[in-house]
Amino acid sequence: MEHKKAIHVPIQTVDDPAASDVQVRWLVGPESGAPNFHMRQFHVAPGGHTPRHSHPWEHECYILSGNGTAFGGAEGERPIHPGDVLLIHGGEEHQFINNSDDELVFLCMVPIKRDA
């Protein structure tokens, strides 16, 4: 069993020109040796946003704190708040936008990409 405090996991700036003011902590990442999923904690500063993108795999997100907007596929934009859960289907275009005065923090679980 791996046990750690999220605050002790190094935080990194998301290095993507389509992102603005986003940082990530790989809570369970490649170095953990997890065989199926990774868990990330994203921090989006006020006025910031993740890149609008899509990929073939699903992921699940849980809003921890702050408020903002999630863009997703045919549904367009919707408000997000602490306690909200999102399932983003594979191939669905998506983005998180912080249009509030407080930091938006959420967990994001993704399957480990496999070649096959």
What is the CATH third-level topology name?
Jelly Rolls
Question: What CATH architecture would you give?
Answer: Sandwich
Structural domain tally: 1
Q: What is the gyration radius calculated from CA atoms? A: 14 Å
Spatial strand sequence of the major β-sheet? 1-2-3-9-4-7
Distance between the termini: 29 Å
Tertiary shape: globular
What is the average per-residue confidence, as pLDDT, rounded to a whole number? 94
The CATH class label is Mainly Beta
What does the model show?
The structure is a single chain. This protein is mainly beta. The chain has one domain (14-111): Sandwich (Jelly Rolls). The chain contains no helices and nine strands. It has a six-stranded antiparallel sheet, with no helix packed on it. It has a three-stranded antiparallel sheet with strand order 6-5-8, with no helix packed on it. The chain is globular.
Short structural summary:
The protein is an all-beta fold. 0% of the residues lie in helices and 49% in strands. 17% of the residues are buried.
Write the layout of secondary structure elements.
Elements: E1 12-13, E2 20-28, E3 37-49, E4 59-65, E5 68-72, E6 76-80, E7 85-88, E8 94-97, E9 104-111
Labels describing this entry:
116 residues; mainly beta; Jelly Rolls; six-stranded antiparallel beta sheet; three-stranded antiparallel beta sheet
